Amino acid sequence: MEVPIAAPPPLVRLDGIRKSYGRHAPVLDDVSIAVQPGEIFGIVGRSGAGKSTLLRCVNLLERPDAGRVDVAGQDMLALDPAALRTARRGIGMVFQHFNLLSSLTVAANIAFPLAIAGTGRTQQRERVRELLGLVGLTDKAEAYPRQLSGGQKQRVGIARALASRPSVLLCDEATSALDPETTGEILDLIRGLRDRLSLTVLLITHEMAVVKTLCDRVAILDRGRLVETGAVFDVFTRPRSAIARRFVAEVIGDDVPPGAAGRLPPPADHEECRVLRILFAGPNSTRAVISEVSRRFRLDLNIMSGRIDEIGGEPFGLMAVAAYGEPAQIDAGMAWMQGLGLDVTVHS
Ligand SMILES: Nc1ncnc2c1ncn2[C@@H]1O[C@H](COP(=O)(O)OP(=O)(O)O)[C@@H](O)[C@H]1O
Ligand SMILES: [Mg+2]
User: Fold this and answer.
1) Which domain holds residue 293?
2) Mutational pocket test of ligand 1: of 17, 18, 27, the residue with most ligand atoms within 8 Å of the beta carbon
């Protein structure tokens, strides 16, 4: 008899979170997310969408007006101040502008939360050495923040966030102040730390490229509301909301170059020209579908754009083609490709 394996309870759960400042429109309006242990969960949204406020509700730097916050099985809003301080040690936080103390060395910055928690000096030194190794800054212990590059400063910020051995890491635009190459290095570091330390990561960003590189799941926040949540691959390949499509287009690129449709030759009598957007993902992604559909359904296919990409290790391709043929043949060709599991839509 098979024993069903129950999914582990989420490590971070926000339920029905609401927050307003004064009499303005709510900054967060009934937001719920559940982050599984070991997951890297991204929340993406434009500036002002409420991302930072939402992240700060996890460790109660911001108290929601309504809703529930559970972290590692604890009802955070029910904790007394001492219990909340303890719970916060289980939640590390990394900031866009690093928030380092300029008068302290790297080692002292990293030791800062340990000193506040009353950790002994010897233990502090030992832990700082470990943390410097983890983030690759062993030779910078005695440097001051002003002597470091942006990427190195963020490594210090990450080491400090991990000092108290948290199970959850919150990242507020952790790479938004960094150049693309350094961003890549920091994202690799975060992924490596998740794997080595079994961290659960909740990150917010306005950059879909960060989500594509790093996250397992993503939620899209727009003006205080969650508009879409899903596996990164699904949201990228089949965005359901207009805002998700816009975010995805930033990374995947516009599949039909602007103006290209206007330059297409007109169809012959009794024929039609239909621009199709074909998404290849899964087992048929490499099949020579285009030439086969052309032969089988007597269609002339004019490839307007195409790209092959990879998200979360899965290949996918996106192609825009102008299909010329009899309308019924185009319908049949579309149905045939859909039968192979390809996502085929008419480009409007
Ligand atoms: N302490 C505050 N007082 C008043 N308004 C605030 C405060 N914090 C944030 N807001 C407002 O809430 C909205 C969301 O802000 P924020 O959570 O920082 O968004 P994001 O991180 O997505 O850019 C913004 O309109 C911002 O002006
Ligand atoms: Mg913010």
Assistant:
1) 261-346
2) 27
Whether 45 is in the pocket of ligand 1, judged by its Cβ within 6 Å, is yes
pLDDT tens across 165-207, in order? Answer: 999 999 999 999 999 999 999 999 999 999 999 999 999 999 9
Using a 6 Å cutoff on CB, does residue 47 contact ligand 1? yes
| Six token digits for residue 74 | 């604890």
Return the closest-CA partner of residue 175 out of 142, 197, 152, 205. Answer: 205
Using alpha carbons, select from 219, 188, 183, 192 the residue that is nearest to residue 203: 219
Number of domains into which the chain is organized: 2
Nearest CA, atom 26, ligand 1: 48
Whole-angstrom distance, CA of residue 221 vs CA of residue 103: 37
Nearest Cα residue to atom 14 of ligand 1: 50
Q: Of 14, 17, 20, 21, which is best to mutate to test ligand 1, by the most ligand atoms within 8 angstroms of its C-beta?
A: 21
Query: Do the Cβ atoms of 18 and 26 come closer than 8 Å?
Result: yes
Residue 92 Cβ inside 6 Å of ligand 1? The answer reads: no
Ligand nearest to the CA of 176: 2
Same domain, 212 and 274: no
Under DSSP, is residue 277 helix (H, G, I), strand (E, B) or coil?
A: strand
Q: Does residue 85 form part of some domain?
A: yes
Distance, CA of 22 to CA of 24 (rounded, Å): 6
Q: Are residues 171 and 308 in the same domain?
A: no
- Do residues 246 and 294 both lie within one domain? no
Atom of ligand 1 nearest to the CA of 54: 17
User: Do 210 and 279 share a domain, yes or no?
Assistant: no
Its pTM stands at 0.85
The CATH code of the domain that includes 136 is 3.40.50.300
Same-domain status, 226 and 104: yes
CATH code, domain with 296: 3.30.70.260
Model confidence over 86-99: pLDDT tens digits?
Answer: 999 999 999 999 99
